[in-house]
Amino acid sequence: MSWRAGLLLSGCLDALANEHLLPYAVYCGDRLVPLTSRRDLLHALEGLHLRLIALGARRLQPRITTLGLPRGKRQRIWVEWEATLGDGSRQVVAQTVEYLRHTDSGLRGEMTEYTCLLKQAA
Predict the structure, then answer these.
(1) Under 8 Å CB-to-CB from 40, ≥6 apart: which residues?
(2) Residue 122 neighbours by CB distance under 10 Å
């Protein structure tokens, strides 16, 4: 997760997109955002990157709070995303449940559910 956070903050969105499977689903509250193409996924990742930069994030640190038991080739991971800002302060910008699948290429994301999202990062 730390590697993915670094890719997002540094703007290496093509490499980050490779860590996801399509179609990719994003839930934010009751709202489903289906990302059915690589272009849609890259657009969403770019939006997250730009919001973090606008917030003044210098570092993005994921903290795994709960690790679900694998079921078949799938696994859930609960993550708290903390940004270190330019002034050195830290702020939790999101809490998510990441739905992952084990593939021949490694662990890939299938869906993200936001359980908490900082308004400034939204």
Answers:
(1) none
(2) 12
Q: What confidence tens digit (pLDDT) does each residue in 11-42 have?
A: 999 999 999 999 999 999 899 999 999 999 99
Edge-first strand order for the sheet with 74-85 is 31-35, 20-28, 106-117, 90-103, 74-85, 57-67
pTM > 0.85: yes or no = yes
b/e string for 17-56 if b means 16 or more Cβ within 10 A? beebeeebebbeeeeeeebeeeeebeebbeebbeebeebe
Contact of 21 with 9, CB cutoff 8 Å: no
CA angle 55, 41, 30 (to 5 degrees): 75
Q: Name the CA dihedral angle for 109, 17, 35, 44, rounded to a multiple of 10 degrees.
A: 120
